[in-house]
Amino acid sequence: MTTCPTKTVLIDKHSAISAMKLMVDKYSIQFPTHKPCENPTSVHHDTLVITGTTGSLGAALLAELMVAPNVAHIYAINRKSQKPLLERQMEAFQRMGLANAVIQPSTNVTFIEANMQEENLGLEPEILHKIRKSATHIIHNAWPVNFNLSLQFFDQNVRSLRNLIDLALSSHHASPPRLIFISSVGVLRHACPSLPVKEGPVDPEIAVGSGYSESKWVAEKLLDEAASRSALRPLVVRVGQLSGSRSGAWKETEWFPSLIQSSVYLKCFPAVDKEISWLPTEDAARALVETKNTDVRYLHLAHPHPVNWSTIANPIATELDLPLVPYTEWLSLLTKSRKGLESKIEQEVVKVNSALKLLDFFTQISLAPESREMAMPRLDLSQARSNSPALNEVKPLSADIALKWISYWRHSGFLPLDSAVLS
Ligand SMILES: NC(=O)c1ccc[n+]([C@@H]2O[C@H](COP(=O)([O-])OP(=O)(O)OC[C@H]3O[C@@H](n4cnc5c(N)ncnc54)[C@H](OP(=O)(O)O)[C@@H]3O)[C@@H](O)[C@H]2O)c1
């Protein structure tokens, strides 16, 4: 695939691409040979290892797997924190409004705090043995979702992925567990917008430009290398924009919630003639669970029935009592809102005008007519759609869900309860 010829050439593009390739090389050294045990038992049930279940998609995935047919056991691996993991997990379920996800003593989940950067994830030998003996799938979902970090910051996450590759290859089964990597549409940031991007590998030129997208490309490429040099069977799932949970819960640190908060601050809401194909988190989780046994190597997950931006923008603008203005005008007001601020004051302003933190992201959104989607390329979903019946049945986004987001952010304190408060 080639980059779109109309894209601006980044000055440091070549050194960024070299850094991406170097990171792939660094973690591609000597993949272990998979040696099944002499009499591998036949597998009748799925046993899954999943990382990052305290996050939005991870919590929804865990909730889906807990009730999925044929799942014997789940190992939920998360990093350490001051609060006990079980407490954090219940908070995540509650925050997401996942009322059916209840953890009881009989629940088929083992919660594990681990340091994934350590060899064997630093797991106790007994747990490690159980995983090697039973795991049929590893879903690697944990990743920092932060567009402001450099590629070097993500080195530790790529190291964790390598450790998971090694764990998969140490399986006692006849073939190693499927390693499902949750990638991002961000990898396709420079894909030509006029054509839907196929579900397959891309060149580094497509992903370069942000540490987050570069790191996801490095991870995809590392898995390709492992697949060509070992028995590993990876599946890369490029997730498009998720639109929070069906209850309306949507993490405030993401770009769209930031756009909403800044719109209240700037007293106007951006209008664009673009489509959105955002997928509710639970629908993405269900599609992922349905596709976990597919033979394909790459999948794209996005809403199969896009709607126009106005479907959500109009009810939100009305609810927040904001006039709609062209996107360029909104962006110019956002840019001006930073000017002349001293750094101490800027930190205060950013708390109520959080899109400022993502100014580069908002500046780079393409308004060219050939970019049909808002802040995302068009995705070919053929492989995902033919493997997930649930994906084909997802309801289109509507004013209803948009108003649930607003209600959630008002209750969380991210938006003022009354939009008149800031006027
Ligand atoms: N949200 C989207 O629209 C979107 C779109 C495309 C792809 N994705 C991908 O989907 C996955 C989940 O995203 P999300 O929206 O659910 O994000 P999230 O709510 O921020 O959750 C991220 C999860 O990863 C864990 N994590 C973050 N940094 C980590 C680190 N350095 N070491 C170990 N664990 C770490 C978090 O643990 P703590 O709870 O301890 O912080 C949390 O469990 C990510 O791989 C992301 O790239 C998301």
UniProtKB/TrEMBL annotation:
Which Pfam families does this UniProt record tie to the protein? NAD_binding_4
Keyword Ribosomal protein in record: no
Q: Which domain of life is it from?
A: Eukaryota
Q: Which UniProt keywords apply?
A: Phosphopantetheine, Phosphoprotein
Domain Thioester reductase (TE), residue spans: 50-286
Chain segments annotated as transmembrane: none
Name used for this protein in its record? Thioester reductase (TE) domain-containing protein
Whose protein is this, by species? Hermanssonia centrifuga
